[in-house]
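Changelog-linked ticket: alpha-D-galactopyranose example.
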Amino acid sequence: MLAFVLSRLRTVIQKAAHLPERLAPSSLRLMAGAFAAAAAGLLAAAAPAFAHETLKLDAPKPALASTPPMGWNSWNKFSCNVSEQLVRQQADAMAASGMMDAGYRYIVIDDCWQKSRDADGNIVADPERFPGGIKALADYVHSKGLKFGLYSDAGSLTCGGRPGSAGREFQDARQYAKWGVDYLKYDWCSTGPRNAEAAYTIMAKALRESGRDIVLSICEWGNNQPERWAANVGHLWRTTGDIFDGWEGSKAWALGMVNILDLQAELWRYAGPNQWNDPDMLEVGNGGMTTTEYESHFSLWAMLAAPLIAGNDLSKMDADTRRILTNADVIAVDQDPLGQQARRIWKQGELEIWARPLKGGEHAVVLFNRSGMPAGMSVDWDQLNLPAGLKADVKDLWSKKVTRHVHGRYSGTVASHGVLMVRITPVL
Ligand code: GLA
């Protein structure tokens, strides 16, 4: 009997917590909140272990991202202008352009693919933009040897005003599994007072029980210190607001590339296989930065062990864009199996050194020059905790030049807004 009462109570609490914002004027929300809080107190007093169970993830997180996910997402270039034709075109281009050979796998439709819910509450794709339906599109993407991703939101509405998943997490996860979804980006608009960890845990549980392996990309913009809890819940988590296609500055809720970079400097300790900080998607090829700046953006994201999610039009890449996005040496740093995110080990004014250890005793180093003029820079072996007398081979990952048996330090000239990115291999 007690179990029955507690289970009813739990359902009421869950419903109260998931009332869609549209249907819940603030007074109602307050009442629901107060009731939920009182009921939760009762529950906790009666059976603390049971109350806790609502947040427990029984199944372990599937190990789907031993290295940072690589792919393409529609948002940075196309925003709400998504369609089945666009997705097919981008999948074709990923396979034909060398991107797939370079390691890119996921084709992710961001916001605005959804239209409504049917009488049973199932999410419905926009029939005009996706006349063939999501399943056929996922099948097409899979037929190319690629993986397929979708976007939803933990609130009542997505950021683009489409139906969110609040209160429908299990139903949506089952639908994604039926469609063949491999990756879910899960956003944070219209969530009101929801607790982020709890909200993302519900979707994580739903995905784990869906019968399909689905990567969970948490996107709450770093608002609730996701680095402290998200590793148990998802495979990657956004650490900031949105990126915009520019070197520096802020525009509404979006930040320039170097502003985002600065917010990553202290986060290295939280990253590792299957748990990645996500400084947002790439802007390489979208036109707002110079080629040198895009090389810096790509190099720094690789140093951060960031997910490499291209955000440009893959069907119209110029030679530089393709060269940058498919630089195998830089990608190998991003995908290094040790999974150690770079630290900023030195900074003086507008000059910085970022470094990360790689598997097998190698190191990746970026000498970064934010200033308006070229700068001579160097990294000393002891800054990398290597013996000063050590000899190492140093490969410049952009020019491809290898310098053999370098002693003690590596020096070079770094272009304005540019990087020197090297891989240091001790000679034993
Ligand atoms: C938020 C996210 C973006 C994008 C948009 C879609 O702003 O942070 O990455 O998904 O929503 O509306």
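Closing comment: Example verified and attached. Residues 26-46 form the longest helix (21 residues). The pocket of alpha-D-galactopyranose is lined by residues 75, 110-111, 151, 158-160, 187, 219, 242 (CB under 6 Å).
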